[in-house]
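In this supplementary section we document a worked example of the pipeline. Step one takes a protein sequence of length 391 as its only input; no multiple sequence alignment statistics are reported here. Step two produces a three-dimensional model, which step three serialises into structure tokens for compact storage. The input and output of this example are shown verbatim.
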Amino acid sequence: MFDDYDARLRNDEHYFGRNILNGRGNEIIEVYGEEADTEQRFREESITEDGIRTWLDKYDAAALKPLLRVFVCAPEQHTSDAEVIALPFSCATLQDIRKKWNLPSEFLRMLLSTMPIKAKFSIDHSSATPVGIMLRGGRSKDWNYCVATTKCPTTGIVNCFVHGLQANEIDDMKRCLRGSIEYAYHAMLLPTILVEWKIHHFAVLLERRAQYLASVEKETGLIHGAADDPKANLSPQQRIARLEEIDFGHITQKLTGLLGTLYFCGLTFQGGLNSLGLIEEVSKPPGDLPDCFVRRITYLKGLIAGAEDSKRLLEARAQAQVDTVYSLISQRHAENALNENYVMRIMAIVTLIFLPATAVAVSCTPRLIVSVFADNATDDVQHVFLELDAR
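The serialised model returned by step three reads:
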């Protein structure tokens, strides 16, 4: 059916033709079987846009075919979780790749999306058996992968399209491919590698955020697990002194960033779990997945479950800090209001003491002037003083 969204994206030139970063452009990776020379089993090189079409059409029945071909988009440099970066080639080149590898029309919208997405598709649309998958992790600064994998039913070559990685992440992916070269024939190898990298990255990030939260707790004085620690029990005077030292703006900024990270970790873990489920689904019957794949996927599911439990604990502790900050801010406002009230009472007392005296002094001053000067003044001046005295 007609894909209007895809048509509108293809007609928007802002999504295509990104400049190459630091001279590192699009790359191709080819992995060959044992029949190839050892040093030639893993081949990688940069490729110009003009050479992509030739590379796509390179292999025929007579040539030595690779087990795996990977097109890796030029590395990105991420500065924001919400940033959508243009593709490093033209729309025409994308169409060539999509048609040659039988990728669905929804592929472009997945490339340009910011949400975690998973989908399976079939090259032969009359067949009910899916032979390809598309996976996108939720857009983030790290491991912002989008991968599409198919296995050509005629040549048996696994074709992969990888987009969204930064330069160091591409190098990590290549290292994992080299170490898993004996499984290059399996279409789920690269998707599993990318999903694992993202899950591990955010699991480690979650552990670091636990240390970050501990520093916030130390600043506010509400420390997790320190209820029985005598050092954590401050006297009222010490608490008042600490209240004056707390930078609430800085702590609020920390807590806002922390809660955002925790929620995004939850999104990442759920997306990773869904992706692993899809990898298992398209690899049925279970015997289609090598034992090492099954073991790794089982471990990653356990890691996600543990990370989710840890995330819930950190969320509860972070929320306790938010409540504490609200309470401390209210205490500071109450203390300031009390001080202001004390100052106003002093001002009122001073006013009550000095205002009547001032009024008496002002009212008595003309009479005092009259009594001093009237006896020695001329008749005309005495008349003026008498009028002033009368007033």
